[in-house]
Specification:
Layout (H helix, E strand, L loop, with lengths): L1 H17 L7 H11 E4 L2 E4 L10
Antiparallel strand pairs: 1-2
Helix pairs in contact: 1-2
């Protein structure tokens, strides 16, 4: 499951890099990505599940 989530994260990261920050939905996608993933030295990694906030 973790490998699939990382693949999804890589895809989202690629989409975010191509989108302009004023594109419809960019803010939501950016927030979801940064809530669930961290980019370290160019690599997309799952954020530790204990560090993911459940509040909105």
């Amino acid at each position: 499951m973790a490998q699939r989530l990382v693949k999804i994260g890589l895809y989202i990261y690629a989409v975010l890099k191509r989108l302009r920050d004023d594109a419809p939905g960019y803010d939501l996608l950016h927030r979801v990505f940064h809530d669930q993933y961290v980019v370290a030295k160019g690599n997309v990694e799952l954020r530790d599940k204990h560090k993911i906030s459940s509040d909105g």
